[in-house]
Amino acid sequence: MSRKANCWDNPVAESFFKTLKIELVYDNSFKTIEQAKTSIFEYIEKWYNRKRLHPSLGYKTPYQVEQAFYQIKNVA
C-alpha cells in the first residue's frame, strides 16, 4: 500500500477529482459554499454520470454501467 495522498492509492478517484477541478471548479468563482455545492452536484449528476464517456468503463457512462448492473442483478 502506498503512502497517504499518493496518487497511486486510487487512480480512478484521483482522475475524477482532477477532471472536476479542471472542467468546473477552476473556471468558476463561487460566491457561497451552497453555490459551489449545488454546482458540483449538478455537474456530477447531469453531466459526469449521464453523458461523459469513460475509457475505464468501456466508453460507457457511469449511469449506463449502473443500469446494466441492476438489470443483471434483477434477472439473477
Automatic annotation (TrEMBL):
Gene3D superfamilies on file: Ribonuclease H-like superfamily/Ribonuclease H (3.30.420.10)
Domain of life assignment: Bacteria
SUPFAM superfamilies according to UniProt: Ribonuclease H-like
Integrase catalytic domain residues: 14-66
PANTHER family: TRANSPOSASE INSF FOR INSERTION SEQUENCE IS3B-RELATED, TRANSPOSASE INSO FOR INSERTION SEQUENCE ELEMENT IS911B-RELATED
Official protein name in the record: Integrase catalytic domain-containing protein
